[in-house]
Amino acid sequence: MRRPSSVEVMLLVTIGLWSLNLTVSRYILTHGFLPLAYATVRYGFAVLVFVVLTLVLERSLRIRRADLGIVAAAAAFVYLNQIGFVYALDRSSASVLGLILGATPIFAALAGLLLGTESLPSRFWAGALCSFAGVALVALGAGDQVSGSLVGVLLGLLTAMSWAAYSMLITPLMRRYSASRISSIVLTATSIPLTLTAVPQLSSQSWSLGWEVWALLLFATLGPLVATNVMWFRSLDRIGPARATLAANLQPFVAAAIAVVLLSESLGWLEVAGGLLIAAGIVAARRRDTATPPGE
Fold first, then answer.
1. Rounded to two decimals, what is the model's pTM?
2. Is the per-residue pLDDT at 292 higher than 70?
3. Number of domains the chain is built from
4. Residues 47-85 as b or e (16 or more Cβ within 10 Å = b)
């Protein structure tokens, strides 16, 4: 058997952290943090980390004027993504959001076709349909554990669509800037409207939340936000957003597996079958180019 490539490892670690983040963020939101207050504090901390890291490594945060429009559009989609994310978790469950996020590759492919940046072979669509069928099996097997209001489901779809659009927009910038510089600029631009929107909640937020909540917030920032941003950007640059976002279909099954370990939940045969189908779809949709990707 061949060894996994570096991009495959990055994607797997990213999906694992994102999956764990659903449970962590749901816990934080049900233990005292208001949705927008949580998003603002988390993003504010992430901006500080990225800015310091970029200045230390590159000594500059400069972005060409011609790229500012892309940065502004990307920040707008990240803003929508965070609004959808925190309120989807607030209105429904981590399981519901995880299942809905399995649709992200479909939105990414459609966005790529509309923008003319992706040319997808038939095997991609076959793999995407296979993975989406796996997501449906996971949802069916979850049964009564899957619950949530219509508003929560719609917010989950907003989260998936905005992330797919963001991934498509940001890909060209990876040819000119590092992942940390892009994150510094985009997250800073996102934090401004996010903070303004969150002012009412920030003013009423109780900050006596206990060390567990603050420790989990630190993890949710450094792991699923900071580390995954770098790995995700590099993956986008290497294999393209449509194929990278296809790996997001693993998230429902990985999130369920994490719940089994941490929350003593059970997995039925439908969930297991769905996870195997998701994995099969990702394998089927992979590129089979023989050339070695840059940086290998």
1. 0.77
2. no
3. 1
4. bebbbebbeeeeeeeebeeebeebbeebbbbbbbbbbbb
